[in-house]
Amino acid sequence: MLFNAQNSTTTEWEQLSCDRVDIKDLALKCLVCGQFHSTEDHWKFMADMPSQPDELIDDLMRMGLYNQQALDLADSISKADLQKALFLKMAGRGNPKRERLVNELIKQAGGLDEAFAAAFGHKSEQFFNDTLSNSRFSRRRFLRNVAIGAALVSLASCNNQQAIEEEPAGTGPLEKTDLKVAFLPITCASPIIMSEPLGFYEDHGLNVELKKYSSWSVVRDDAIAGDLDAYHMLAPMPIAMSLGLDATAFSVKLASIENNNGQGIAVANKHKGKIKSAADFKGLTIGIPYYYSNHNLILRYYLAGGGLNPDTDVKTPVLPPPAAISKMKAGEIDAFILPDNFTQRVVYDDIGFIHILTKDIWPGHPCCAFAAGDSWIKQHPNSFRALNKAIIQAAGYARNLTNRIEVARAIAEEKYLNQPIDVLESVMTGTFSDGLGNIKTVPDRIDFDPYPWQSFATWITTQLVRWDYLPEEKADYKTIGQQIFLTDLARELAEELGANPPKALLKVEKLRFDTLDPQQPQAYLKEQIDKFGI
């Protein structure tokens, strides 16, 4: 049928008429692109299509697809920028999400010229031959260029666009490509760290300098001072900082979750056989990484469920995570609740054992997050979007169990975690020794779901109130979740990456001792206090 349409003659069209109108004047649906024009006109249009981007844009101008007033407004930008803007409007078909995707594809191809070459030009054969290679980077490049080709074929849609509009936020040039991002040397930071050696930052046009820190308070201080572009933070920190709970109020947005689960309570070997439940921790010293951490909040929840008052029955000093091993070995602490590379390290060094994984207290709980200051995001919306997208992509890669060994080896180096590969593989694969003579298999010991459920913020806020970190009258649960957790953006970026994230903002959170209905946080908090007395 396409052959017949392509080779139909003018005479044949002229013979098709009726009393009211000539058939060739009707709006017919094109068999090629589905738009309303004749298939013959489509083929003629494609036959005359220029092969070079410059010629294409010039031709579109001569065809009158863009009015002169709109073009006059673009005099201040370069011809290359104008060509890109025109192409985005045509390929994007007026859909902002589609324009963002096409813009991202152009960037990943290395520019508009490279995108055309990838789809139609002399490099096409080279890109498609990448399928013969088994390397991850070649597979990724092949799939990327297939997507680029698919986007560019939109050029044949023959859609008219009336004017050049302002590019949607987050789709223009990156305001800043050289970025400084903080991290602590823990497995929770895997997506932030692995994005450097595995190339996710580079894929999104970024040159990221990872800055290694030993404590959360220093990350907080440097964030407030403006010495960093973005940060690896504990999930409660953006809430605490935005509300001014531990310093001057500084608005921070939680952009995506770095890891779920991935923590545990480790105990010194001298307590073997004595610690069976939460109640057995009475009188002990248990290290925590920061007051505004889920480690602290989950520990308090666990101890209270066992009948202990975390403020009077135990001591909970704050210690930098890298110092935990030496302090336990020296007998300065009896236990700690920290990321799994440290809980596993005490087993590896034969100085302690794993009492419980935090996933057994709150399955799927968030631990760490990727965050940035609100003012920085507003000044660098495109760079922030690209950075968050790279980290969400990395989290998706790390979530696949078949990639865990690769991730473990990528983050083991001295400049990153500086941990034995055996320790990291035990954490990442979930097959590990607990220090009590058992080999356990827990595939979700650590997980990497980047979706920032706002119900996470709800539970965190209930516990901040419960333990007197946040006055109850300031606990506007809904507003805290909506204003600090960028759930909608995380969903949008995940969809652009081909993922299928949830549509909901909230979900019921099932914990060891109770269940949080995020629509009823006050009732949940009252129930806890009534049941446990604190």
From TrEMBL:
Q: Provide one Gene Ontology cellular component.
A: periplasmic space
Q: Which Gene3D superfamilies does the record cross-reference, listed alphabetically?
A: Periplasmic binding protein-like II
Protein location: Cell inner membrane; Periplasm
Q: Name one GO biological process term.
A: monoatomic ion transport
> Is Calcium among the key words of this record?
no
InterPro entries with a match to the protein in the record: NrtA/CpmA_ABC-bd_dom (IPR044527)
Q: Which PANTHER family match?
A: ALIPHATIC SULFONATES-BINDING PROTEIN-RELATED, TAURINE-BINDING PERIPLASMIC PROTEIN
The protein's name: Nitrate ABC transporter substrate-binding protein
